Amino acid sequence: MREITPPTLRPPFARYAHAVEVPPGARWLVTSGQLGVGPDDVAPEDAGGQARQCLANIDAILAEAGMTRHDVVRINAYVTDRAHMAPYMAARDAWLADVVRLPASTLMVVAGFTRPEFLVEIEVMAAR
């Protein structure tokens, strides 16, 4: 896979690539949006804690598929308030700290999720 960040574009705002090229024949994995809730059905009260839980859930899905965060080519994230952007981005950047080829990424502010305590939802696409 190849990270694509053309020099004619403004650099990304954070740790992500403008695009990722996936070669022919790669095996794809697409996750549903993961909420910041653990197997005990409890969600941390803060956006950072929920983002970390979302990413832990994604790690479990990737592992089940024989993949890791190094295989992620796209992240879509949703937060319920602009105030949650920084805690989400800190969790994402920590999750990607040792990843060399960064994924493409989109972050959106949305009105809400299925339960009012949910503040963050993250979905990924991975390829290997």
From TrEMBL:
This is Enamine deaminase RidA. PANTHER family: BLR7761 PROTEIN, YJGH FAMILY PROTEIN. It comes from the Bacteria. Signal peptide: none annotated.
